[in-house]
Amino acid sequence: QVQLVESGGGSVQTGGSQRLSCQASGRTISPYCMAWFRQSPGKEREFVSGIGWSGRTTYYADSVKGRFTISRDDAKNTVYLQMNSLNPEDTAIYYCAAGALMKVFTTEGPYDYWGQGTQVTVSL
After folding, report:
1. Is 114 helix (H, G, I), strand (E, B) or coil?
2. What integer pLDDT is reported at residue 122 of this predicted model?
3. Which among 12, 30, 10, 1 has a CA at the least distance from the CA of 94?
4. What digits encode the pLDDT tens for the residues 88-99?
5. Distances from the Cα of 55 to the Cαs of 9, 15, 51, 103, 118, in angstroms?
6. Could you give the CA distance from residue 47 to residue 106 in angstroms, rounded to a whole number?
7. What Å distances lie between residue 116 and 3, 22, 37, 95, 100, CA to CA?
8. What is the distance between the alpha carbons of residues 88 and 92, in angstroms, rounded to a whole number?
9. In whole angstroms, what separates CA 51 from the centre of its chain?
10. Partner of 9 for a Cys bridge, out of 34, 74, 105, 118, CB 3.0 to 4.6 A?
11. Residue 118: which residues within 8 A CB-CB, separation 6 or more?
């Protein structure tokens, strides 16, 4: 079992930055693909970014490409999401996910473990 706990959420103004962290426990995340999803009120949860188990491949939703950066530190069992140039459309609960996968998937189903989420609110 892998337990995931997200942190780093909060309120920020448009144009600001935040860094989310996903701390894993229970097992090392090194063999897992890791991803961030988000859910806004009234919308379905959507893929934001993912990183392969080796750390060499990263994926981003078009809406965040160029603004968000995902990274992983397996020694700390932690995954990060650096978010820059935030805008109100980025307001959502952000979830961390882990999957014993050969590649990153942009859908929820393949992921085995999920965190409880952290709220990010971007105001004008």
Report:
1. strand
2. 98
3. 10
4. 999 999 999 999
5. 23, 28, 6, 11, 23
6. 5
7. 10, 10, 11, 7, 19
8. 9
9. 9
10. 118
11. 6, 7, 8, 9, 20, 93, 94
Tokens 């337990």 correspond to 3
Q: What's the pLDDT at 20?
A: 98
User: Residue 107's closest CA among 40, 14, 33?
Assistant: 33
Residues of the chain with pLDDT under 70: none
Is the Cβ–Cβ distance between 94 and 45 less than 8 Å? no
The answer for residues whose C-beta is within 8 angstroms of residue 28's C-beta and 6 or more apart is 74, 77
Alpha helix (H) residue ranges in 1-124: none
**In the prediction, which pLDDT does 99 show?**
96
By the 8 A CB rule, do 116 and 7 touch?
no
Which tokens go with 67? 């603004």
